[in-house]
Design a protein that fits this description.
single chain; 586 residues; mainly alpha; two-stranded antiparallel sheet
Length: 586
């Protein structure tokens, strides 16, 4: 944008003038000292007239006014920005924070946020949170001022006063309008004068302000607009605790714990607000679970105990408590997939292998097709089979006086059974689940193939059945294993078979095949070119083009590299970046 370049030039010129003036020791202030700043403001005004809807430009102008301390201009800029973007909560918050922090004008900041709430209170939660934060910070300032003045110990006495009440009678700030306030202004003033002629109780209204009466009113109005939103209420309570009103925040959290007794978030926030240690936190969550029998609370208790176990080590008391809780949770049906996983891990750490098998089967019965539980089950099957084979081979080795490799277990039936079991687990998994969890399950099957080569047949059947559902990471790992264990010829055949069935061969698989072919003792250059052509056709990636060119240069074919360069320039959108990297490559 030409306006921004002109503004940047004027700012740099102004900085240069100030440095030169300081170097020469000139202290006299003339019209030329303000001319540069005036030109900058003029340029911004012209730019904003032309690009009215550019929020970034408005924010740049606001930042400039703040740095140059142009308060009068800044007030007008904020007013114009709020007229143009009344639904943008960020501008309202920015304007209120400027009035409160820079101008030290609490009334103006409060008025801005009240208007923002009227316009956006039913849509934006952020505006309510910032309104609460503003009032809490104001109360904190009042408390600090009282401490400095030493008036906090003075107890107010009952007396009759004729003054306006300190707690403002908040209108319905979420739904009212300024016209309604003007119509009802006379009646409100009369009511305020009558209310002023009262005998104040020992706790005056000023004390109630210091106790957080205004933030509490705003909280109640916010909850009216967003009822049954636990996270929103807890966020407001968290703001109150952080900004100097911990008692009020704690009271709100306790209320939410009563309203939502089965929610772990409320109880955890209560434990944090009370600053409980790890043991007391666990006891609080455990008490809540015993009372309300919620699956969410059960998972929270298990997580806390598991964290303590990880941090403090294998403490017998925590292990026993976990055993009891897991048994209770499975009887009550409160176990989630994550809880079942932790239960299995707990039994494995205690070497309770009989229970591990039973618990794993129970978990899959309750959550059939769950990928995490299925992956864990696959890993357990592999571990169990390996343990059996080690035991068998060690017995044979111990009974032989002389080492004889032929006597070691060659029975493939356990491996075949395991392969069938793993394949059935793969088929049972829901294809809509998380890709990472599915990849983990496939890699377990691949681990079996690494240990027992005949199990590759089961994987090949799955590959050819529906290859488009397989994760890319698994396909890359599969071809890496084929290359290292069987050889390049088999890898080429399988790549050709799979490319006919796949909609789009993963780029990682193509690049692995290229690297394996180049690293061999007798690389097939025609096959490498075929793979590169497939990669650049399907992906048109800058890095792939450069690798293709580097391959031709390494094998002394500069004419092919030049032709590839011009093909890439025509195919790529950002040819300038490619040309720079190509020059470096040459």
């Amino acid at each position: 944008m030409i306006f921004l370049r002109a503004i940047k030039y004027e700012i740099n010129l102004q900085v240069l003038k100030n440095k030169r003036k300081e170097r020469l020791g000139l202290k006299k202030i003339g019209k030329c000292d303000f001319a540069g700043e005036t030109r900058i403001h003029t340029l911004f005004h012209r730019a904003l007239k032309r690009y009215t809807g550019d929020k970034k430009l408005w924010l740049q102008y606001i930042d400039l006014c703040m740095k140059s301390r142009s308060r009068r201009v800044l007030s007008k800029v904020f007013a114009n920005a709020l007229k143009l973007f009344p639904k943008d909560v960020g501008f309202w918050i920015y304007a209120a924070s400027y009035e409160f922090e820079v101008c030290l004008n609490m009334n103006a900041a409060r008025a801005i946020l009240q208007r923002a709430v009227r316009m956006n209170g039913k849509v934006s939660k952020k505006i309510w949170i910032e309104f609460v934060r503003l009032e809490c910070l104001y109360v904190l300032k009042l408390q600090e001022r009282q401490k400095i003045l030493g008036v906090e110990a003075a107890e107010p006495k009952p007396t009759v006063v004729e003054t306006e009440p300190h707690v403002p009678a908040f209108p319905d700030i979420a739904s009212g309008s300024e016209d309604d306030e003007e119509e009802n202004g006379a009646e409100a003033n009369d009511d305020t004068r009558k209310a002023a002629q009262i005998t104040l109780p020992p706790t005056s209204q000023h004390t109630s302000v210091l106790a957080g009466a205004i933030p509490q009113i705003i909280y109640e109005k916010a909850i009216e607009n967003f009822p049954n939103d636990l996270q929103f209420a807890l966020e407001i309570a968290h703001v109150m605790i952080k900004t100097g009103l911990p008692d009020l925040g704690l009271k709100i959290i306790e209320t939410q714990c009563k309203s939502n007794p089965s929610s772990s978030a409320a109880w955890r926030e209560l434990a944090t607000a009370k600053k409980l240690d790890a043991r007391a936190r666990c006891e609080l969550l455990e008490t809540a679970f015993k009372k309300y029998k919620s699956p969410e609370l059960f998972e929270a208790v298990i997580d806390e105990l598991h964290d303590r176990l990880t941090r403090d080590g294998q403490t017998p008391a925590i292990r026993e408590k976990l055993d009891v809780l897991f048994a209770t949770g499975s009887d009550l049906g409160c176990m989630s997939p994550k809880s079942w996983q932790l239960y299995v891990q707990h039994c494995v750490s205690l070497a309770k292998w009989d229970q591990v098998e039973e618990i794993s089967q129970k978990a899959l019965k309750q959550f059939p097709g769950n990928c995490d539980l299925t992956g864990q089950r696959a890993e357990l099957i592999l571990c169990r089979t390996l343990q059996q084979m080690r035991t068998t081979n060690s017995q044979i080795f111990a009974s032989s006086q002389k080492y004889d490799a032929s006597k070691l277990s060659e029975d493939t039936s356990p491996w075949a059974t395991v392969a069938q079991e793993l394949v059935s687990l793969v088929h049972s998994v829901n294809t809509q689940t998380d890709t990472t969890a599915r990849t983990r399950l496939w890699l377990s099957l691949l681990s079996l193939a690494c240990l027992h080569a005949p199990s590759l047949e089961s994987i090949d059947e799955l590959l050819l059945t529906n290859p488009n559902e397989l994760p890319d990471e698994f396909l890359v790992a599969y071809f890496e294993m084929i290359t290292h264990t069987i050889g390049l010829n088999v890898m080429r055949k399988k790549v050709d078979q799979l490319s006919k069935r796949l909609v789009k061969m993963p780029l990682g698989v193509i690049l692995h095949c290229i690297d394996a072919e180049i690293a061999s003792s007798q690389p097939k250059l025609s096959y490498v070119r075929h793979l590169f052509e497939s990669a650049v056709t399907k992906y048109n990636n800058e890095d792939v083009w450069l690798r293709y060119i580097k391959f031709e240069l390494d094998f002394k074919h500069p004419e092919f590299a030049t032709a590839l360069h011009w093909r890439a320039v025509r195919a790529l959108k950002n040819s300038e970046s490619f040309s720079r990297r190509y020059d470096l490559l040459k």
